[in-house]
């Protein structure tokens, strides 16, 4: 039996079709539309009777398709659809699977954009969301109603890196006749495969680790053809497809995904360990540390623990701001997942829109710093953190 290619091989070669001109990778086709020689061929593609290149907004473009196939190989998913941003991917997926009268059950803390989508954009459409935080899971049975179509979760979460048991949630969702959607942006397919654990759909903001260089804005949804068919229709009609130029850049980034994330895992774990014993640090949140409340679940369902390390410092919010400002190698910026290390204070960026009470309920402290660890030398990163913490 032929050996199944491993992850790093799939990152480099996944989905590549031999090119008639011998190109090593699928070239960039910027064309908005594609030529046909007869009407029957055009209508066959138009009606979905056979695959073909037709119109780029539909995603029927060789560069977009090649990137989707590469992503599907990497995640181990039947199909992938790429979008112009992570939020486009999330909104299309929820709109495709929920109609007026349906409910969504959102578990744990989610990205601020997702929270606004669920609380501001979808309710006027008749789609309401119930929210349960990680310490309220005992209320799951009574919160899951007959009208709940989707259980939605991010794991690990931002910024406290709470880890949810995907297998357990899939069982609960399916018993209630609901689908489980997992935003796996923080974990990446290198560290976690939600579909293999029973999730129905996995989503990623490719703006983060999959793009990996802080220069590609995009999103991807991965699932079976049947679950993605309505998502494709929303993407087509709302015009949310990823541009071919972006798909081309993303495909190049994906070739080094396994190398980058494995390097980030190693550096983040080392920095988390060192921060945990630093006198200026009050608490470290990292799923790879035995002190993390969900460490056992993380060990079961993740191959690596990711490149984000969150920590709180003694001295309050002003002290955390001073430390970030004192960093020289690590840059102050609100994103994550790139090859360069970034730091942000959640109260000033990702969780700025929440009231102090809402932040307290989610365990987001003023003195919290979220560090997105890049691929720089770990000793250089530690030297920078040490000098900033000594301020
Ligand atoms: C976990 C998570 N999901 C989705 C998004 C949205 O992605 P984008 O900014 O590409 O729309 C973000 C953005 O930070 C995120 O952190």
Folded structure, characterized:
The protein is of the alpha/beta class. It folds into two domains: 7-30 and 61-254, Type I PLP-dependent aspartate aminotransferase-like (Major domain) (Aspartate Aminotransferase, domain 2), CATH 3.40.640.10; 258-389, Aspartate Aminotransferase, domain 1, CATH 3.90.1150. Helix content is 38%, strand content 15%. It is built from 15 helices and twelve strands. It has a seven-stranded mixed beta sheet. A five-stranded mixed beta sheet has the order 8-9-12-11-10. Helix 5 links the parallel strand 2 (103-107) and strand 3. Helix 3 (62-75) packs parallel to helix 10 and helix 13 packs across helix 15. The longest helix is centred in the C-terminal third of the chain and has 20 residues, at 257-276. The mean pLDDT is 96. The site of pyridoxal-5'-phosphate has 14 residues, from helix 4.
* Assembly type: single chain
Mean pLDDT: 96
Low-pLDDT runs of 5+ residues are none
CATH superfamily of the largest domain: Type I PLP-dependent aspartate aminotransferase-like (Major domain)
CATH class of the largest domain: Alpha Beta
Helix run count: 15
Structural class: alpha/beta
CATH topology of the largest domain: Aspartate Aminotransferase, domain 2
Please give the order of strands in the largest beta sheet. Answer: 1-7-6-5-4-2-3
Q: Number of DSSP strands?
A: 12
Cα(first) to Cα(last) distance is 60 Å
Using only C-alpha atoms, the radius of gyration works out to 21 Å
* Main sheet characteristics: 7 strands, mixed
Shape: globular
Features:
five-stranded mixed sheet; 391 residues; globular; seven-stranded mixed sheet; Aspartate Aminotransferase, domain 1; Aspartate Aminotransferase, domain 2; 2 domains; single chain; alpha/beta; binds pyridoxal-5'-phosphate
């Amino acid at each position: 039996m032929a050996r199944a290619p491993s992850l790093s091989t799939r990152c480099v070669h996944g989905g590549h079709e031999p090119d008639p001109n011998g190109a090593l990778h699928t070239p960039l086709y910027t064309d908005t539309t594609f030529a046909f020689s007869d009407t029957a061929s055009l209508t066959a593609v138009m009606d979905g009777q056979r695959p073909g290149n037709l119109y780029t907004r539909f995603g029927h473009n060789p560069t977009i398709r090649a990137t989707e196939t590469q992503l599907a190989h990497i995640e181990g998913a039947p199909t992938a659809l790429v979008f112009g941003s992570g939020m486009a991917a999330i909104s299309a997926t929820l709109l495709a699977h929920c109609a007026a009268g349906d409910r969504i059950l959102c578990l744990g803390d989610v990205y601020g954009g997702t929270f606004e989508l669920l609380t501001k954009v979808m309710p006027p459409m008749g789609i309401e969301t119930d929210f349960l935080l990680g310490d309220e899971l005992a209320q799951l049975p009574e919160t899951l109603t007959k009208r709940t179509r989707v259980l939605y979760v991010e794991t690990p979460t931002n910024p406290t890196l709470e880890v949810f048991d995907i297998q357990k949630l899939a069982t609960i969702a399916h018993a209630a006749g609901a689908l489980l959607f997992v935003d796996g942006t923080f974990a990446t397919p290198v560290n976690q495969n939600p579909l293999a654990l029973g999730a129905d759909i996995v989503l990623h903001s490719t703006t983060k680790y999959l793009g990996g260089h802080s220069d590609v804005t995009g999103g991807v949804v991965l699932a079976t053809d049947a679950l993605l068919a309505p998502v494709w229709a929303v993407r087509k009609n709302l015009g949310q497809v990823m541009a071919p130029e972006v798909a081309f850049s993303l495909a190049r980034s994906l070739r080094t995904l396994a190398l980058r994330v494995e390097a980030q895992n190693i550096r983040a774990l080392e920095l988390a360990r060192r921060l945990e014993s630093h006198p200026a640090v009050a608490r470290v949140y990292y799923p790879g540390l035995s002190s993390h409340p969900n460490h056992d679940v993380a060990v079961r369902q993740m191959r690596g623990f990711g490149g984000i390390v969150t920590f709180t410092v003694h001295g309050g919010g002003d002290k955390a701001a001073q430390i970030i400002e004192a960093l020289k190698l690590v840059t102050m910026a609100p994103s994550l997942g790139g090859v360069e290390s970034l730091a942000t204070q959640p109260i000033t960026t990702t969780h700025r829109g929440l009231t102090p009470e809402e932040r307290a309920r989610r365990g987001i402290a003023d003195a919290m710093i979220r560090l997105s660890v890049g691929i720089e030398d770990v000793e250089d990163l530690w030297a920078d953190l040490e000098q900033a913490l000594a301020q």
